[in-house]
Design brief:
Layout (H helix, E strand, L loop, with lengths): L5 E5 L5 H10 L5 E5 L11 H17 L4 E4 L2 H15 L3 E4 L2 H10 L4 E6 L1 H6 L1 H9 L4 E6 L3 H6 L6 H11 L9 E5 L7 H8 L4 E3 L1 H15 L11 E5 L4 H11 L4 E4 L5
Parallel strand pairs: 1-2, 1-3, 2-9, 3-4, 5-6, 5-7, 7-8, 9-10
Amino acid sequence: MKNSPIGIFDSGIGGLTIAHAIKKKLPNENIVYFGDTKHLPYGEKSKTAIQSFSKRIVNFLISKDCKAIVIACNSASSVAFDVVEKEAGNISVFNVIDPVVREVVQVCADCNIGVIGTKATIQSNVYERKITDLCNSSKVSSLATPLLAPMIEKGFINEEISHTLITNYLSNKRLANIDYLILACTHYPLIYQEIKDYYNGKVTVIDSANIVAEYIARQLEQKNLLNNSETTKHHFYVSNYTESFEKSAKFFFQEDLELEEVTLVI
């Protein structure tokens, strides 16, 4: 069981930021990654559709003998966590929301917290609900930024188009006077520096990838599931092959990839 892989899934390349952070924190772990590129972005899909996609993917990851499953997508974490957990049975399931909320409430009491993410994540109100449940002295302001994930998937990073979109979103009055900004989409760490540059040190930008990786490492250690092997193997699967996914995966993992396109049965 210890030598079994960690299963990670997202609608596209965003979850690679989580996979990379996990690989860096836990270099002895094997990873099976599934990018549902056929259905990206999840943030524009209905709750029912996201749950259906997630259910199929988790069964695929179970078939690959994964010892833990990471929902490396805020949209799926916000509306499909219970579905995935139920489907996974005794397998540990992690989302990318709860570790960040726990971290934030420790440092952000009496602060104004901004949240940007996909429509699905923001409409679920999950961050505001979870943060205020633990720390009702914090004010949470959320803004849907639906064009950012598709922009990143298309490779528009640190260019005029990304600067324009980021400025347009972050200048929204809903985000005025915030002290912290949560990047509530796993794609957004890829534009972390651009967002940080926009605020010029006036706002603390919270990148979830390392927070999530640290939390998963602690949980696997507590469950005695850490892999001690020094030989690792990573497998990448997509529902629709794209050059941008392969290029991004190679960038993050710096190795030749085993990338396979698979069709999941409904």
